[in-house]
Fold this protein.
Amino acid sequence: MNAPIAVPGAERPSQSAALDYVRSGQIPFFRLPSVDPAVPGSLEGAGAVLLGVPWDGGSTYQAGAKLAPWHVRRVSALVQGFHPVHRIDVFRGLRPVDGGNVAFPPFDPTAMRECVEDAAARIHAVGAVPILLGGDHSIALPALRAAAARHGALAVVHVDAHYDTSDATVWGDAHHHGTPLRHAVLEGLVARGQLHQVAVRATTSDEQENRWSRGHGARVRDMEEVAELGVERVAGEILREIAGRPAYVTFDVDAIDPAFAPGTGTPVSGGLTSREAIRFLRCLEGLHLVGMDVVEVSPNLDHADLTSHLAAQLLYEGLALAALDAR
Ligand code: MN
Ligand code: MN
């Protein structure tokens, strides 16, 4: 990864030049400055830090999400700073940086959780917003732990085809990509009544997960309700219910219809369009965003990088929310 190229008139360019990515091969997310968060002072001035989490040891069916950080970085070079709807320069305003991938033995789930929590905590400690790209959804739990340790019990916006409040019954292990929200609720990381689940639609073995979510105070807007109300209204309602609390957005790309996001391990037909997903995040303007992840992107199952491009856009929309919040 290269140092940013100097631009005349700018004291510190927010992105390197487009030609730099042609020259470099692998480039940082969005051609942003690349830093090692473990180096003291490296995060100074950064409003957000992007991290890759190359982990798919929690995938129950098709794997591949561990490859997403490489592919999404590559296609993210096409994203530029100025937001066409919010009318702000996201990169100049927020000064986000790429903190690299969280490194851990790729077969040790406990080490993964410890390393992700440490990496996110380091970012919270300097007042910046961690924005993670998985990896499978099990990487969200340590990120939520770090966010709650810093900000207290959170409002969580969970966009997913699945509840992810399963337990050890099906797979004999309480930690996989179908369980992070259950742990987050039981550990008190989510404020009572502040789990907002959006676009859920997968079939389940029985009504238990649905009942569990609602019984623990989750507000579930399933795909039927989202289709009926529209994403603008859903986002508006969620904003009102969150009412300024510190908020974490955990975005499983399988919330989006496999026609738009085929590169994912547990696809479910009948989901959001990519336009609805982007619109939903834009309509969350005003959210006090303290952390975000985009998960379950499996480039090996993708076509024409569709899902990687969409993931890059979702990360950018998250950065935009953080930039709006920081103004
Ligand atoms: Mn899912
Ligand atoms: Mn999920």
In short: The two ends are 29 Å apart (CA to CA). Residues 137, 160, 162, 164, 177, 252, 296 surround manganese (II) ion (ligand 2) (CB under 6 Å).
